[in-house]
Amino acid sequence: MKRKIAVAAALAATLLGTAACGSGGDDNGTASANTKVDGTGKTIKVWLMVDAQTSWKNVVEDASKRFTAATGAQVNVEYQQWANHLTKLDATLAGTDVPDVVELGNTEFSKYVFNGGFAEVNKADFENSGTWLSGLSGACELDGKTYCVPYYAGARVLVYRTDLFKAAGIADAPKTYDEFLADADKLQSGNKDSKFGAFYMPGQYWYAAMSFVKSTGGDIAKKDGDKWTGQLSQPASQQGLQRWVDAVKKYSKADVTKNENDQANIFSQGQAGMFYGNAWEQGVAEEVHKDPNDPTSPMVPTKVKGKLAAAPMPEIPSFLGGSNLGVTQKSGNKELAAQWIKYFTDSTSMSGLVKANALPNATALLDKAAADNPTIAPAALAAKQSWFPPNAEKWADVEKGNVLQTMLTDVLTGKKTVADATKWADDQINTTLNES
Amino acid sequence: MQAVDSPTTRPAPPGGGTEQRAAVPRPSRRRRADARVPWLLALPTLVVLVALLAYPLYRMIVLSFQNMRLRELLTGLTPSWVGFDQYEKALTDSTFWGVVGRTAGFTVVSVILSVLAGLGVALLMRRVHPKVRLAMMIAMMFVWALPQLVAAQTFRWLTDSDFGVLNYLIDKLPGVDYANHSWFVNPWQGWSLVTVLVVWAGIPFLAISLSAGLTQVPKELLEAATVDGATSRQALRNITLPILKPLLTIVTTLSVIWNFGLFTQTWVLRDGHPEPYYQTLATYSYTQAFGQSKYSYGSAIAVITVLLMLGVMVFYIRQMFKIGEVD
């Protein structure tokens, strides 16, 4: 009961702010990023995810400096954790003291755009907006208006052990899916260790599984008129899922109840030949902080340091992950906020991100990125052939509801057949996406 | 009354009718003041209780009759009133009843195991050398002092499929392959782990309370029983347990309350996203409210949870009051 009440208290406390701010969202004008504003004496609050702090803090600082020089306003950046940032955001946006700029993952944005959490921005104010990656900007668009700005992207690639490839007599990264399977066979048969898996693939890694579904022409859900319909039980989707299940069962020794969060660290233990991850995860697998609790401690090499390479996953379209930036509807400094986003997403900032192994926000910049930074070349290539989850208001609820994760684990453990599990998932998706 | 009277009334000359009448209002005024003082003293506590418990509870109940979603939260619109819709939705949903059954089943099993284990440890503590008893007390204090979150994180790493020491040790046994074994694929295995964690963390409170209760069992009774030829089992059933009964009722009740609200352990062991077969009422209410932004539905589930638990507890609470009356 104590804990029950604690939950209740938290629930109620979150909602306390609601009553106090009934008139907070009346201003519905477009936040222009190009009008001259005098921001002297003002400070805007920016919420970025922790990745910016660990990987490209200099880009943030540089953009803020240029912003301050142009407007006179100060910037206060607060870094958020992925694990709890949405709960925190909900509670904060319910109040009046809100951040002016918020970063959210691209799959998380739709829900807030549909529910009036973000202010409209003028697309033309932002550099490269004509060629924004549609996987990112899709979540920003509603009824022909734009509510957020693409920030950076990540595409998933095949990371493999060059030393093991050489030992198994494989010259190059696989170019077709059949080659990939043949290589996996060679790696697996060449290794006598019972813990060794040629292809590390945790069972709840749904971005990967859905990429396989897309590879055979399948889909997660489709919109007909006003209604969403789950497509996983369609033959094309089932075929792709079966392809994934076969590969996992044959080549992976990964935990079927885990997701991909710690895959790079597990891979660095040296007991797998390949994994499917973000381009930057190669770096995570090769080097770790000496003291994992201290982000300023020196980097130390892992067992697989210098033995890794990346290539696009053959014939499997990549899930395009990434983040967008939005101006909150309740912000008191909308124009300043839009201007800060303008500086933080311009070509100068984007080339900084590319140096830090992130993909830029526009297709026009991808080729240059691949040329400037060979590390992300495979990812830049993969990003050109990428997919994105259904752009539905309630999509985030499907993710939060563990629907796809549960489906995958149930299939891998043999609890359900592919046919039964996809039927179940479609039912869940239909209910969730169409709920009023 | 006389013992309470202040000395000033005593010197009053006896037989003086007027004085006696004049003295009447005085105690009555004092009685009025007496009635106010306890309330005044309790006021800070009451204010805190109302602010931290009653008001949030009131808001939660109000919320459960509305339909509050993300739009209302973000824009400050007043949510629409929907009457008992949220309750109807929960009570007609088989998923919800599955969660209720799972929570109840876990509570019964974990409470029985922890009370038995706690009683066992308490009885053991009466028999061992005082130094050993002290060592046991200290060890249990450490377990007790460990925050739930820390204990759950520790268990999560012990049982991790890739880095866990449990798999490593089991794997060392000849002929057993437990490398990369996942403890959460099979819900029975996963729930066994959760139960072990909860029972382990629950034993110190039970054992220490019950061993304190055991000191109240008169030695003479036990000696007399032994002289009369009672076995130790008979002595336990007919002497020790009846004397312990009030205390056992209370600690069992508390364990039911705590274990029914299981949240932290499953939440942490499943890394913040428990699969459907690891959901209990507390996590289900939380994921509905905060994960899926169904704030009203989550509130309705929380209210139902409280009602369900009160329904079960009425029996125990009545018994507790009966014990109080006899004393």
TrEMBL record, chain A:
InterPro entries: SBP. GO terms for molecular function: maltose binding. Keywords: Signal, Transport. It comes from Actinoplanes siamensis. Residues 1-19 form the signal peptide. Belongs to the bacterial solute-binding protein 1 family. This is Sugar ABC transporter substrate-binding protein. One of its GO terms (biological process) is maltose transport. One of its GO terms (cellular component) is ATP-binding cassette (ABC) transporter complex, substrate-binding subunit-containing.
Automatic annotation (TrEMBL), chain B:
Residues 1-29 are annotated as: Disordered. It is a multi-pass membrane protein. The chain crosses the membrane at residues 37-58, 104-125, 137-158, 191-214, 247-268, 295-317. The keyword Transport applies. It is found in: Cell membrane. GO terms for biological process: transmembrane transport. One of its GO terms (cellular component) is plasma membrane. Residues 100-318 form the ABC transmembrane type-1 domain. PROSITE patterns: ABC_TM1 (PS50928). It comes from the Bacteria. Keywords: Cell membrane, Membrane, Transmembrane, Transmembrane helix, Transport. Belongs to the binding-protein-dependent transport system permease family. This is Sugar ABC transporter permease. It comes from Actinoplanes siamensis.
